[in-house]
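Following up on my earlier thread - several people asked me to post the actual chain instead of describing it. Fair enough. Here it is, all 188 residues.
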Amino acid sequence: MVNRTQKSKSKQPQSIAKRIIKKYPNRRLYDTSTSSYVTLSQVKDLVAESTELVVFDAKTNEDITRSILLQIILEEETGGDPIFTQPALVNIIRFYGQFMHGFMGDYIEKNMQSFLDLQIEMAGLQKPASSEALQNLKNMKPNASHELIQNFSEKSRKAFELIQRQMQEQMDQQTNRVLESLRIKPPK
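Reply from S.P.:
Thanks for posting it. Predicted structure:
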């Protein structure tokens, strides 16, 4: 299980396929591929365009991408129409430091990917790019979007079941280690 609370201390690799942005002590962001300073809003646009990027602290070479992404989320959440409700934020905070902390991150990540897949699939159905895609749309059942949402729900349920199995396996392993340390034979 990946510990999501550990800060990445990775040094800047020599050759990387991602867009490299450096953050200087004056809080300015410098895009090395365009040799120009960029704003946080422009970094947000790069992310929205699915541009792979990494942000390094120019002084320490520490990977601070996650910190910059969180800063973008904070600005988006405080400025307009937020995604997270207050109860959702409270519940997320409650998971920090709990046994299910790592599992919750995995579950959210899997659901976000399933939701993104659903969005792509629905966008493809709503905006056919070719006559073949248009014909496929005409041949679909009337309740196709309903089926897509059911598919998303099924993926979400399966992701939760996977996380649940992983939790059970981890609990079993921890129990067996405790029993073995007490020289008690674990049950089979």
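The beta strands are 19-23, 29-31, 36-38, 53-57. That should answer part of your original question.
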